Phosphate-specific transport system accessory protein PhoU (Entomospira culicis), 226 residues
Amino acid sequence: MRKSFMRTLKVLNEEISKMAMLASKALAQAMQALDARDLAIAKQVEEDDEAVDQLQLVIDKHCLEALIRQQPLAKDMRLVLATLKMTGELERIGDQAADIAHLVERIIMREYQHYRIDTLRKMYDIAVQMLATLQHLFSHQSEELSDQIDRLDDQMDELYRQARQELKAIMRENAQYVDEGVTYLSIAKYFEKIGDHITNASEWIEYVRTGRFAKERRALDDHLEE
């Protein structure tokens, strides 16, 4: 039973890595479409979102089979539950990459050109770093990697606040730029949400490692500091 379960864990690890890579590829293509103003790439991102959705179904099926047939205990049970939660977070990242691509199509079609996208590029870079760190964290559970994701999410939040200020300034400059400002602000918000999804997934891995949720750990840390 234990050997069979270890094989299942190996498969789940590979499938989660593949799902994270698909989500990362979708984000990269959405950013490429924005940089190059390429309508074809943007449309491709929307079409490819189905692959992420299908992989989620496959992983969820494997998790449910593991729970029913192999009846894992303690930490192994937590790992299967965390994997189920992670597929949900990765699926939403794929959805949001497709949402960004849809907004890129609007930017191209309406020829928006008043906002420089330097801050959005930085947000994209942070999202890619967070996804890569999440993959390592799933394979090599460690407090250091979990803390690294928290630090990157703080940077993502700060960049979102910066993008919001930049776009508010553009919209205040001329009412004609409001639609453009709102479109870019929506893209910034999607990047910020992607950071939140990765952080949520990281917190589930912490639950696997420690048996405690992140909120419990923070409450304990606060208590010890008092």
